[in-house]
Every structure is written in structure tokens, then in C-alpha cells.
């Protein structure tokens, strides 16, 4: 019954938002309350899960969101995004922009938190959309979504990838060799297929987009910038590049076993983004008036406040789902592992991870839970453990939707309606999961020593 109530709760949230036009915050809280009470958690336990889930999300990413949005506000004020977009357009043909964006996110950025990636990449995607013509925003939004999560689950040091490697006791180098091929390949194929859907009429601008403005906030670039008072491209990019380099440095130092306080401090995402904010704030103060900088900061605070609330409530629903103990119901799926075919094992591993993601709303938690369920038996299965890990990665990618805090963060930053977010993020992650599944099956044919 827990699985049924979870499905009802998720379906109800979607129905309330799309059909009855409820605010997502109200719909998410109602869905969380229903699930907690219907599944027998209890009145106060449900309330506790809602508040704890909200608090946990804020503790994990609250400052990251706030600092990231403020960086965006400052960069927009000095015209940095337009400069970046123009440089990207000069370097990459317009019709290749989605592929280039996804390739960077899937191969270079997996060491970065997914929330940080979307905060920093969303303004570039939105500003670049006009160069692709009609359907540019959903195409780039889809590329951003699948690029981030294909790297997250397949490419070391993505958090989900590292979690799978650790829990299944895999060799990281072996997983990386497979993942560095499967991740980007999945992203490229998915983007191509998704573009075919857009050409066939998948997108409706009136219903699927809420904010037609190509800027992250309502801040307008200062008039003085039109007179040529702009930073260099390298300086304009530094509030983004410096945090990325700091976080990547910390991640790779951790992989190398360097547990040094100063390195951990430098590589901390909160410290890195605050450093980026300081650079962006100083640049804004230099190139525009103090009053205009203050206005941009205020607009950024207003934007981040809206994003934080809906993101936190999305985390509340995920916490209630987790509290139902749904994972315990899946443990017996592999009890009859003897005699299973390789294809069936891959399908079951994929299914466990996909179901966990649909229920819990977190790619990393789904991957960790599925790997934890399979870890005790993976050594006895007639398939290489790394293939089981890749199947889990593929399944955990499936259909990121309304019970994920990332869903609401992505929606807000890209200016999409709830329906539009389902037609981009949910669609491309479902497609990417299905695209990667036969690739994992093909990888099982490769002899692994």
C-alpha cells in the first residue's frame, strides 16, 4: 500500500498544479500530508518529516542557491552573461550549442554539485536560446538537464557515480572507463531525439513558459555599460570559473586521499560560491554605481527567496516518502538471483533504481539505496559488478519529477511552467534512462578481467 499511496501522492501533486492551478508550494505540502497520513506514519511524525525535510534541504543547498542567484544578479548587471553568450556563439555554431553545453556538463562538471551547476548554467542557457530560434529554450533546457545528470550518475567524480562505486566495491578506474563513454553518449543521443520531438510540436510557449525574459532576474544591465565600460571576458567569467575550479580541486584532492583542512575548506561549495559572489560584487561596484549594485542585489534576494521556499517544500515531500520505508519493500526482488539471465539482472537493477527515484525524488538517494540493496548479492551474480553499477546509474536517472527539490529549482531558474518542466527535465531524464539501458546491456558483452 505504501507504493500505491506514493503514486497517488505524486499524481495528486501534478494534478493540483497543472489542472487546478494550485501554487506548487500548497500542492507539495498537501501531497506530503496525504502520503504521511495514508501510509500510517502518524500525524506528528508526518509534520516532523515535512519540517525536517525542508530544513535538511536548506542546510545542504540553501546558501548555495542564495549565493549562486546573487552571483547571477551581479553578472547580469555588468553585462557578463551577454558577453559569455556572444563568445559561445562565436566558438560554436548555433545548432550545436545544446550539444556543446551538455558535453561540458557531462564530462567536465560532474565534480560540481548539481544544484550549483544549474544555478550557474541556467542563465547561459536562457540567454543563448534566442540564437536557436523557436524552441531554443526547451532544447537548451533539455540539454542542460540531461547533461548534468548523465555526468552525475555515470562520470566519476559525480556524487551518484562515486556512491555506486563505493557501495558495490567497484574499481573506480573501471567504472570511469565505461561511464566516460556511456554518460556523454547518452546525453548526445537524448538531445538529438528530444530535438526531433520539439520539431514535431512537443512545446507550447504559451503554456510551457512562465518567464519570457532571458535574464536570471529582473535586473537590467546598467546604462553605463553601453558606453564600453565592461570587464574583459576572462574577468566576467571569473565569478563562475573560480568557484568551479575551487570545488573541482577539492573533489580531486579527496579522490587522491588528501584529507587536509585547508584543502577541504577551499573545495567546500559554500566557500567557493561565496568567493565567486565577492568577485562578482566587487566587479559590479567597479563597473556600475553603488546604488545600481544595491538594486541588483535586492532583485537577486527576491528571486532567491522564491526559489528557496519552493525548493525546500519539494524536499519536504521527498522526506515524507523516504520515511514511509518504501525501500524495504524492494529488497526481495533479487532473492531468486540464481539462474537469472544477464539481461534480467540488468533490467531488475535498473527497475529498483528507477522505482526508488520515482518514489524518493533524489537521484543520489535512489542510486545509494539501490546499490545498498544489491551490494550483498552483487558478487554472486553472473554479470560483472560494474555492469550492475551502470544499470543502477541508468535507472536512477529515470524521470526526475515533482518530488525532487531540483525540479523546482530548475523550473524557477529556467522560467518554465510546471508543465514545461515536466516536458523538459522529466522527459529528458526519462529518455536518457531508457537510452542508456541498451548501452549498458551492450557493455555487458565486453569481457572484464
Automatic annotation (TrEMBL):
UniProt-listed Pfam families: GntP_permease (PF02447)
The keyword Aminoacyl-tRNA synthetase appears for this protein: no
Keyword entries, A-Z: Membrane, Transmembrane, Transmembrane helix
GO MF, one annotated term: gluconate transmembrane transporter activity
Annotated TM spans: 6-22, 29-51, 57-76, 97-120, 140-168, 175-194, 240-258, 265-287, 307-330, 342-375, 387-410, 422-446
Cellular component GO terms, alphabetical: plasma membrane
PANTHER family with a match to the protein in the record: GNT FAMILY GLUCONATE TRANSPORTER (PTHR30354), PERMEASE (PTHR30354:SF11)
Protein name as annotated: SLC13 family permease
Amino acid at each position: 500500500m505504501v507504493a500505491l499511496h506514493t503514486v497517488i501522492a505524486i499524481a495528486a501533486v501534478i494534478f493540483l498544479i497543472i489542472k487546478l492551478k494550485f501554487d506548487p508550494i500548497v500542492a507539495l505540502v498537501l501531497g506530503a500530508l496525504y502520503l504521511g497520513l495514508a501510509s500510517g506514519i502518524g500525524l506528528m511524525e508526518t509534520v516532523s518529516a515535512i519540517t525536517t525535510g525542508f530544513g535538511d534541504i536548506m542546510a545542504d543547498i540553501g546558501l548555495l542557491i542564495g549565493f549562486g542567484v546573487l552571483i547571477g544578479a551581479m553578472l547580469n548587471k555588468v553585462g557578463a552573461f551577454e558577453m559569455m553568450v556572444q563568445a559561445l556563439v562565436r566558438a560554436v555554431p548555433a545548432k550545436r550549442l545544446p550539444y556543446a553545453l551538455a558535453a561540458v556538463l557531462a564530462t567536465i562538471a560532474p565534480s560540481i554539485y548539481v544544484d550549483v551547476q544549474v544555478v550557474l548554467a541556467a542563465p547561459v542557457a536562457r540567454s543563448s536560446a534566442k540564437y536557436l530560434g523557436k524552441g531554443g529554450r526547451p532544447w537548451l533546457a533539455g540539454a542542460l538537464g540531461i547533461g548534468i545528470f548523465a555526468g552525475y550518475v555515470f562520470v566519476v567524480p559525480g556524487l551518484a557515480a562515486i556512491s555506486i562505486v563505493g557501495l558495490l566495491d567497484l574499481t573506480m578506474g573501471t567504472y570511469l572507463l565505461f561511464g566516460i563513454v556511456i554518460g556523454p553518449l547518452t546525453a548526445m543521443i537524448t538531445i538529438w531525439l528530444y530535438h526531433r520531438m520539439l520539431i514535431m510540436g512537443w512545446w507550447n510557449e504559451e503554456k510551457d513558459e512562465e518567464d519570457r525574459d532571458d535574464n536570471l532576474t529582473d535586473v537590467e544591465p546598467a546604462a553605463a555599460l553601453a558606453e564600453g565600460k565592461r570587464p574583459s571576458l576572462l574577468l566576467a567569467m571569473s565569478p563562475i570559473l573560480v568557484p568551479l575550479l575551487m570545488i573541482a580541486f577539492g573533489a580531486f584532492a579527496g579522490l587522491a586521499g588528501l584529507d587536509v583542512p585547508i584543502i577541504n575548506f577551499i573545495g567546500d561549495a559554500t566557500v567557493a560560491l561565496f568567493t565567486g559572489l565577492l568577485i562578482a560584487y566587487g566587479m559590479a561596484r567597479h563597473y556600475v554605481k553603488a546604488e545600481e549594485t544595491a538594486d541588483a542585489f535586492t532583485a537577486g534576494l527576491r528571486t532567491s527567496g522564491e526559489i528557496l521556499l519552493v525548493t525546500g517544500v519539494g524536499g519536504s515531500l521527498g522526506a515524507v516518502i523516504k520515511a514511509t520505508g518504501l525501500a524495504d519493500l524492494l529488497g526481495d526482488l533479487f532473492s531468486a538471483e540464481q539462474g537469472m539471465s544477464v539481461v534480467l539482472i540488468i533490467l531488475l537493477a535498473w527497475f529498483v533504481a528507477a522505482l526508488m527515484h520515482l518514489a524518493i525524488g533524489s537521484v543520489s538517494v535512489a542510486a545509494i539505496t539501490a546499490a545498498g540493496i544489491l551490494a550483498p548479492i552483487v558478487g554472486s551474480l553472473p554479470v560483472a559488478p560494474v555492469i550492475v553499477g551502470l544499470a543502477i546509474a541508468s535507472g536512477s536517472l529515470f524521470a526526475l519529477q515533482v518530488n525532487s527539490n531540483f525540479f523546482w529549482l530548475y523550473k524557477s531558474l529556467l522560467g518554465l511552467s510546471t508543465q514545461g518542466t515536466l516536458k523538459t527535465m522529466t522527459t529528458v531524464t526519462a529518455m536518457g534512462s531508457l537510452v542508456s539501458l541498451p548501452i549498458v546491456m551492450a557493455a555487458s558483452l565486453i569481457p572484464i578481467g
